[in-house]
Amino acid sequence: MRRRPVLPSHHDDTEKGGGKPPQSRLCFLATLCVMFWVLIFYFHFSVLASDPEGPPVAVATEARIARDDHPFPVPDRVSDPALASPAIASEPPPATIPKKEEEEEPSAVVHLQEPPPKEYPFQRALKTAENESDPCGGRYIYVHELPPRFNEDMLRECQRLSLWTNMCKFMSNDGLGPPLDNEEGVFSSTGWHATNQFAVDVIFGNRMKQYECLTNDSSIAAAVFVPFYAGFDVARYLWGYNISMRDAASHDLVDWLRKRPEWDVMGGRDHFLVGGRIAWDFRRLTDEESDWGNKLLFMPAAKNMSMLVVESSPWSANDFAVPYPTYFHPAKDADVFVWQDRMRNLERPWLFSFAGAPRPGDPMSIRGKLIDQCRTSNFCILLECDLGESKCHSPSAIMKMFQSSLFCLQPQGDSYTRRSAFDSMLAGCIPVFFHPGSAYVQYTWHLPKNYTRYSVFIPEGGIRKGNVSVEEILRSIHPDVVKQMREEVINLIPRVIYADPRSKLETLKDAFDVSVGAIINKVTQMRRDIVSNSEDQDFVEENSWKYALLEEGQRTIGPHEWDPFFSKPKDKGADSSNSSAGAAKNSWKIEQGEQN
């Protein structure tokens, strides 16, 4: 019997199942399929996603699209080995991007660190002004301890200070001079002295000794005072000495100052000193023996300092005018108030007055014209002066005339200014000026910039031509306006006098206080401008007189109504020109003859 061949077992199962594979085979195939896809997803999400430098897979497409619009170049991720097929064991590992290149990716934000603000050695002094509990904050003054040859030795040799006058008597009472007799009752009971008009050096120096905010710590000082008697120094050697002798003390002073640490703070720009003479005495331009004065204000180092003089140069930036000393030096506020009330209540029978002498040798002088007008007027009182004996040499005669007048004529003297202007204001007399250089561009710290409040201005050109009448102009001013102007003058009295250095006014500010305050403000503003890098780079020194007339905060200058008076410095721009030097020489006639 032929036996049937044995078929594979699965064939039998198929037949038994009606042609369908058994259930166990289907499960096996499904399991293989699931495992296959599990491996695929595991490789996709685990192996590829493990690249820390690559973007998440979910945003890979978006990253590639965004790369096309990125403003900075982005590395091409397609060529990145991390996204390629896994490397074979025999292949070298894929190269990695150097760290330096990673840091230079343009997408990184670079923060530039600003440099720290610059520190200045004077900033501690500026900060003292912010201390509200310190009454001297921002007001401290440091005073150099100069060798006595610069000050006290001059006083011990006071007989050498003037060729014609023994100045020793004027050095008494701390520079005020001997007390004045009051036989005619012109003065008040106390505070009146025969003060020399060139004594500001010693008066100012002694007042500084009483200043309430002196300090030995220069780092907190708002300004530095140099107690050099510059006016007395130049007075010793003006006549009969060569220029080396005239300049010797000034050179010595500058050398001494430049060795001091205080000088290095600002190169001397925070230093100030006093020279109680007109600026032309310190502005010798040449080294000719015949030229006038010394070179103190032209020395490069000294030009950084501020110098207080009784008359400044309109075209120079380093000298500032302070009032001439008068005869009145009150010890307390009450002395001032009593005097002011007395001036308010005086009867003034004369419309105007003039005290002075003609200048026949000066064709530009209008003094002769004014004297002629006064002589022919029924409203003017005249006190004529010459080199001989006259009432012009008597303080009581001068003050008595001023007290009897509503207006006092103040033309130029041998230079722009006159002591007489301050004597007349002290008497409550309204000054009449004929040149802006006589007061308006000079005493800008002490007098209102609106000169019409306290004075009358009549340009001298009309007087010189003879077509202007002083009497007519003054009579045309309404009495109410005259009263207001006189009140303004009387209120200005404290600011134009120097109080007794041996005492201190309680509430009023005298000429010393005003001057020191102005210097402090000047230095403080300069320091702030340096810190803020806002110094005026367009400053023109020849226009210094214009800057002095600007209101606080203003810096821009332009054409001015007084340009014709100051069109150019005299004689080719030289402060030490023949005309200026001549004026300085002539001013010594005042001392020689003690005339006004």
From TrEMBL:
It comes from the Eukaryota. This is Uncharacterized protein. It comes from Avena sativa (Oat).
